[in-house]
């Protein structure tokens, strides 16, 4: 794909990620401590929905990585063809580029007024991303049937809040490596619109 197409597709992915994280945080903020059994179940239903949204954010991040790595030869697209699980997509993409994760950047201006993005460690490691996705995946089902009864995975609002805030902060200004290691997509999600542009990476 050409740079213009990559930018357009990556920007669209980031716009949806931001909308989902913003909505997720808004719902989480209205949850109140359970006052009754019915209220507790009400909260549980909302938390299950938040896990589902966080899972979708993981899948969108994985799709964004594929978009950035998908060169003209379509090698990446062939690697992940038919895959839908974010952890599987990441695993297959990393076979072609093990530095494909988005990295936060700190933007500073020099004396001439030029802006530079100084790269930080990745927003997450492969193992962290896989565990996050699998944890969300566990909440898509009512529970596991055992001989001694049903076992239900307990929901954890603090876990949801931690990861949604971590992803939101880490992706606010970031760079994602393009094939070849010397260029990247620089993204800024802080304003009213998501802005992306390709450029040379500082080493």
Please, could you describe this protein's structure?
The longest helix has 33 residues, at 37-69. The radius of gyration is 19 Å and the shape is globular. 28% of the residues are buried. The protein contains six helices and seven strands, in the order ααααββαββαβββ. 51% of the residues lie in helices and 17% in strands. It is an alpha+beta fold and 203 residues long. The model has no long low-confidence stretch (mean pLDDT 79). Strand 6 (183-188) and strand 7 (195-200) form a beta hairpin. Strands 2-1-5-6-7 form a five-stranded antiparallel sheet. It has one domain (3-200).
Shape: globular
Percent in strands:
15-25%
Q: Helices and strands: which structural class?
A: alpha+beta
Domains (count): 1
In whole angstroms, how far apart are the ends?
A: 25 Å
Outline the low-pLDDT stretches.
none
Helix content: 40-55%
Give the SSE order as H and E letters.
HHHHEEHEEHEEE
Query: What is the number of E strands?
Result: 7
Summarize the main sheet: 5 strands, antiparallel
Number of helices, where a helix is a run of at least 4 consecutive DSSP H or I residues: 6
The average pLDDT is 79
Strand numbers in spatial order across the main sheet: 2-1-5-6-7
- What is the alpha-carbon Rg in Å? 19 Å
Helices and strands in order:
Layout: H1 3-30, H2 37-69, H3 75-80, H4 86-94, E1 103-109, E2 115-119, H5 126-138, E3 144-146, E4 149-151, H6 157-171, E5 173-177, E6 183-188, E7 195-200
Antiparallel strand pairs: 1-2, 1-5, 3-4, 5-6, 6-7
């Amino acid at each position: 794909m050409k740079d213009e197409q990559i930018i357009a597709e990556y920007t669209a992915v980031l716009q949806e990620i931001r909308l989902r994280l913003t909505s997720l945080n808004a719902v989480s903020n209205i949850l109140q401590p359970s006052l009754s059994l019915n209220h507790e179940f009400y909260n549980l239903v909302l938390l299950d929905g938040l896990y589902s949204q966080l899972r979708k954010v993981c899948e969108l991040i994985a799709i964004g990585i594929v978009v950035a790595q998908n060169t003209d030869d379509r090698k990446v697209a062939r690697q992940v063809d038919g895959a839908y699980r974010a952890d599987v997509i990441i695993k297959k993409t990393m076979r072609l580029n093990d530095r494909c994760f988005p990295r936060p950047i700190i933007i500073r201006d020099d004396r001439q007024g030029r802006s530079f993005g100084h790269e930080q460690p990745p927003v997450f490691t492969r193992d962290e991303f896989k565990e996050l996705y699998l944890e969300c995946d566990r909440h898509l089902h009512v529970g596991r049937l055992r001989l001694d009864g049903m076992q239900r995975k307990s929901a954890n609002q603090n876990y949801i809040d931690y990861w949604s805030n971590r992803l939101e902060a880490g992706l606010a200004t970031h760079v994602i490596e393009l094939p070849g290691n010397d260029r990247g997509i620089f993204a800024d999600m802080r304003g009213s619109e998501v802005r992306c542009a390709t450029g040379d990476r500082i080493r």
